[in-house]
Amino acid sequence: MSPSGTPTENGKFFQAALDYKHGFREPSRIQVYRKLRKGIWVDMGFYDLIDAYEKNDQKRKVFKFLLKPKIDLNQDDQEYLDMLHNRQIPGEVQKEVYERDRGKCRICGSSDNLHFDHILPFSKGGSSKVASNIQLLCARHNLKKGAKFI
Ligand SMILES: [Zn+2]
Q1: Buried b or exposed e, range 122-146, using 16+ CB within 10 angstroms
Q2: CATH number, span 89-150
Q3: Model confidence band, residue 60 (pLDDT cutoffs 50, 70, 90)
Q4: Where are the domains of the chain?
Q5: Which of 16, 117, 133, 140 sits between 20 and 30 A of 58, alpha carbons compared?
Q6: CA distances for 98 relative to 33, 67, 78, 119, angstroms
Q7: What is the mean predicted confidence (pLDDT) over 103-131?
Q8: Cα(111) to centroid of ligand 1, in Å?
Q9: Average pLDDT of every residue of the chain
Q10: Rounded to the nearest whole angstrom, what is the distance from the C-alpha of residue 87 to the centroid of ligand 1?
Q11: pTM for the structure as a whole
């Protein structure tokens, strides 16, 4: 809880995970970003939030969350690995896009919290393998765009 008594972001995640565990709700769908280097994030796709626990560090309480990749369990492993692999933007494409867009958001020119964004979304058949389908967007513009497609 925050000092004003409302749940913190971690608190909301924690409650959602417990509610799922106790059968009160479907798992929360979480979009995961991996930090590539300072200020640059890669979209790793959607995961189900399925469990949470607290761990006591020496000084503070740390929340741990368990995420499961969103996949159809009937898919075989190879299909799943292909899906993960295809969604990932290869290092050389990331580098090409980063240099082409000069390390800045294509919309506003910000160089903070940049994300590699699929111009045609992966879920709609957009490729991760060609720089022409990938652009750099700041977190603000990436989220704005995402809301349109989800
Ligand atoms: Zn921007």
Answers
A1: beeeebbeebebbbbbbbebbeebb
A2: 1.10.30.50
A3: confident
A4: 1-70, 89-150
A5: 16
A6: 17, 29, 31, 15
A7: 90
A8: 8
A9: 83
A10: 23
A11: 0.51
